[in-house]
Write a sequence for this structure.
């Protein structure tokens, strides 16, 4: 493979472009996915790895410390209701290939790595996929199967909302009440079609705080979930996704205060 890279507007842009083109030696050249059918398995995987490489190479600089947020920041501009298309659509029918081929797949893998599986499960699984399908031609089902088997978690729900649909996330704190037995109950809801784990930051009346991580299974019985705060402490404020790590389309309902 030979690539000609034009002079970039900055050192960072040049380095990122070189990383991207070197990355294509792996996707789709070594792991030979069909980029004419599934660009998200080629450009998307490559973009995901580029971002991680840029974060490492430029760590400690403004560029290196913010490049990982780029796909999430692009979400409101490109994931428009009625206009966004599923990743699985053929690329010749895509109106926004920059999003569906490059940036959204990178955001999908970032979300899976950091918010769903954790690096300790995602990284070995992703490496296992590369090893298993080197010099072969995987389909999406092959990728799904390896990630499921290696991580030990059924991810059909995740692939469905990210690849086959254009589901949107809207987690909300509806209210906080006091249980009959004492202590606070935080009433949460999932108002969108996308389901993801929840991170809940609680501030108590005595000024102390606590961050609670709730698994995606919380939504198994419906789109409402009541979190009973242990210890009988009184909650004065509750906030979902305090790190702003998820593509929540309405952050106005993420916070409740007494």
């Amino acid at each position: 493979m030979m690539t000609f890279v034009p002079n970039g507007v900055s050192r960072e842009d040049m380095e990122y472009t070189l990383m991207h083109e070197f990355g294509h030696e792996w996707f789709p050249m070594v792991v030979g996915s069909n980029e004419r059918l599934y660009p998200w398995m080629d450009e998307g995987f490559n973009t995901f790895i580029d971002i991680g490489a840029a974060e490492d190479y430029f760590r400690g600089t403004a560029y290196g410390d913010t490049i990982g947020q780029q796909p999430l920041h692009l979400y409101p501009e490109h994931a428009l209701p009625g206009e966004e298309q599923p990743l699985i659509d053929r690329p010749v029918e895509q109106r926004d290939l920059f999003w569906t081929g490059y940036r959204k797949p990178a955001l999908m893998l970032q979300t899976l790595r950091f918010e769903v599986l954790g690096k300790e499960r995602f990284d070995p699984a992703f490496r296992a996929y590369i090893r298993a399908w080197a010099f072969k031609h995987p389909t999406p089902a092959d990728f799904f199967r390896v990630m499921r088997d290696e991580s030990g978690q059924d991810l059909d729900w995740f692939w469905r909302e990210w690849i086959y649909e254009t589901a949107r996330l809207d987690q909300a704190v509806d209210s906080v009440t006091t249980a009959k037995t004492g202590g606070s109950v935080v009433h949460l809801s999932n108002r969108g079609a996308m389901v993801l784990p929840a991170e809940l930051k609680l501030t108590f009346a005595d000024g102390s705080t606590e961050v609670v991580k709730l698994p995606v299974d919380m939504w198994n019985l419906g789109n409402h979930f009541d979190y009973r705060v242990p210890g009988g402490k009184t909650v004065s404020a509750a906030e979902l996704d305090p790190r702003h790590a998820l593509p929540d389309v309405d952050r106005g309902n993420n916070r409740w205060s007494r």
Residues 176 and 186 are 5 Å apart (CA to CA).
